Automatic annotation (TrEMBL):
Any one GO molecular function term: hydrolase activity, hydrolyzing O-glycosyl compounds
Domain of life: Bacteria
UniProt-listed GO biological process terms: carbohydrate metabolic process
The name this protein goes by in its record: Glycosyl hydrolases family 16
Length: 283
């Protein structure tokens, strides 16, 4: 349930090393950003790629060439194709192997083993496409333990006519998550909402995680409630997380993409991470 509206902090922009250093009245300091200002592939110092069929029975084959920076934005493009699946195994029961063909391609990039952060303000400005079957996301995963015991934060997730803000931790059943989820129907936004750029934000400290779109609070969960329910007493949100950006298609949640005209794009203006200037790991 949507609980309240938070007034945006005053932003001050200061040119720095060819980028934009952004301080806020909340005492945050920019510590990392990708403004996507260089044309070509995403900066390999910041981003790695997922490849092939990856998760959630999704329809897309992830590949590097579907993510490109141009005009100051990262563009992740989903395409309809008809290609042989190089991992096809006749009569296999494995969902990745039993598909004879690749019907869609897209891209998924992440900062794993390159940049990870514990606590802070995470911000993305982007435009998402909301046609049937599309499943874009801006999210984080913890660096230790298998999913979901590593912790997942979906700062932005969209599918089936709703915008979601989710947090998940582990349970006593391997690979089964406990979800803290809130969804906002797309029809509660203004007309043509998806044709414009919007700003998603996470404020994460040692007490809570709060998720926003355009300063509207979508979800807030206290960290004390996010300890893995497997007897370990491990809290996956008291460890560094890395960032992921992807455009999925279909699968367990995305819906049916068959009536959607392709290509479709997830356009990202920037991703920025801020932390408090004093003792960033302690606030």
């Amino acid at each position: 349930m949507i609980t309240k509206i938070i007034t945006a902090a005053l932003l001050i922009f200061v040119p720095f090393a060819g980028k934009c250093q952004q301080d806020t009245v909340g005492g945050y300091k920019l510590i990392w950003a990708d403004e996507f200002n260089s044309n070509g592939p995403p900066n390999q110092d910041n981003w790695g790629f997922e490849s092939g069929f990856v998760r959630n029975n999704e329809d897309q084959w992830y590949q590097e060439q579907n993510a490109v920076c141009r005009g100051g934005k990262l563009v992740i493009e989903a395409q309809r194709v008809h290609l042989p699946n190089p991992g096809y195994v006749p009569n296999s029961t494995n969902w990745k192997q039993k598909r004879q063909f690749i019907d869609y391609t897209s891209s998924s990039i992440n900062t794993r083993n390159k940049h990870s952060f514990q606590y802070g303000r995470f911000v993305m400005r982007a435009r998402i496409t909301t046609d049937a079957g599309l499943w874009p996301a801006f999210w984080t995963l913890g660096i230790e333990k298998p999913w979901p015991s590593n912790g997942e934060i979906d700062i932005m997730e969209y599918y089936r006519n709703k915008l979601l803000a989710n947090i998940a931790c582990g349970t006593e059943v391997p690979y089964k998550a406990k979800w803290y989820s809130n969804a906002k129907p797309l029809n509660t936004f203004k007309t043509n909402w998806s044709k414009k750029f919007h700003t998603w934000r996470m404020d994460w400290d040692k007490t809570s995680i709060s998720l926003y779109v355009d300063d509207l609070l979508l979800n807030r969960v206290d960290l004390k409630d996010l300890v893995n329910q497997d007897g370990t007493q491990f809290n996956p949100f008291m460890q560094p997380h890395y960032i992921l950006l992807n455009l999925a298609i279909g699968g367990d949640n995305g819906g049916d993409p068959s009536v959607t005209k392709f290509p479709k794009r997830f356009e990202v203006d920037y991703v920025r991470v801020y932390q408090k200037e004093q003792n960033p790991g302690e606030y």
